Amino acid sequence: MSRRVYLDHNASTPVHPEVLAEMLPFFAEIYGNPSSIHAFGRDARDGVDQARERIARFLQVSPQEIVFTSGGTESDNLGVKGLASARGRGHLITSSVEHHAVLRTCQVLEAQGFDVTYVGVDAHGMVDPDEVRHALRPDTIAISVMHANSEVGTLQPIGAIGRLARERSIPFHVDAVQTFGKIPLDVDALGIDVLSFSGHKIYGPKGIAGLYIRKGTKMVSIQHGGEHERRRRAGTENLPGIVGLGKAVEVRARDMQAEAERVAALRDRLWEGVRARVPEVRLSGHPTERLPGTASLLVRHVESESIVLGLDLKGIAVSAGSACTSGNVEPSHVLVAMGVPLDWAMGAVRCSLGRSTTAEDVDYVIESVDTVVRRLRQALPVGAA
Amino acid sequence: MRYSPTLVDHFLNPRNAGMMREPDGTGESEYAGCGDLTRFFLRVRHGRAVEVRFQTYGCGPTIAAASVASELGRGRTVDDLSRLTSGDVEEALEGLPENRKHAADVAAGALRAAAADWLSRRR
Q: Which residues of A touch B5 (CB under 8 A)?
């Protein structure tokens, strides 16, 4: 099988050639420690500063409000723990469909004595801002809701939740790992105080991410050992990574709009094609308020991993909504929270498109999904599933 | 995760998949951990399984395990089938990753259950 189609851009993306070119000198030519005061260090510092400025310009914030981290997971940990720990005790509100980087962090905070309310979502995976309002308590110290869900692509009503937070001066953290650099994002208009973003979802390198922290937001660091990042995140800066992230953001600022339109059209082509050919298939997530490149399919009575394997053998990379790890499979917590019935949820397959995706790729995927699902359904006519 | 060529072949081209009318023995096995379910049907003549068919719901390895087990079973005595082990199925698949061992358990368990069904019907 020579044809290879990568439809897992929500998991990771290839580094953009312009990003790679920008990064290369920062491995062996410009390699000083940005904290060093000599020329080698100053050159490295210039690279970090330029990247910080590029990101700040993109978000229309001040460079001092950007902190670099090692990944989206660290950004979420720092965002949520940093806000909670700065207050010491109290109540947090988050949603039941957050990434585990937020959910598990909240669970850890619960074990430390914080209270957490996990608001639910509707059948489209959307949080109801009214539910957030009802969850508010006098001791609510932070709200954390993701911008878009990585599995189903639903965009959350961040602006409405941000207004609630603003009215009560409660700091608002948003995990924007899946939206940053993909759709417009205005932290002031949306009332966001802390924002997680990542490099490798937007054609930057892995191992680099960041956090926007609005000036004046009370946060404590969770990693200690140096004065880096204005004492908000200790550790020598990942210089090539930071440079790459800065360039990736600059490229996204240029290409984002056109690509979002192109990718959304391809996503619709994919869904329309699959729907026309495959019986008993649904699109999960919100019909309109969704990420441009995400199509999460629910294939009834077929197990998602078998579809993923079938497509993999045809050179197509997609991801399974339910993962059988150590012989224990659970449908994704997102689909469970959305109330998707088990016979559909177990057949969840996420296709996430990106800048390399072509119409020919999409047509090949449609045909392959049809073939694979048809074959699997013939082999598995067990109604009990 | 890397699967053996044999496993991939059985996943892509399952042998003996489908149901059987009026079988002489049927049996099921389920792996509650992930909802995998396999059902075997036997056609028995003179104490031998002359036809073995299956239905299954599960991940790729589970489908492949049922398919390979159906080939292992055909032509064998039912007594033999009642002693089929997960190890036999796994060996025929040329190995399974550690976290997919249950695929062989489900297939072997369902085939043993079908054998036990025939043996009990005969009594």
A: none
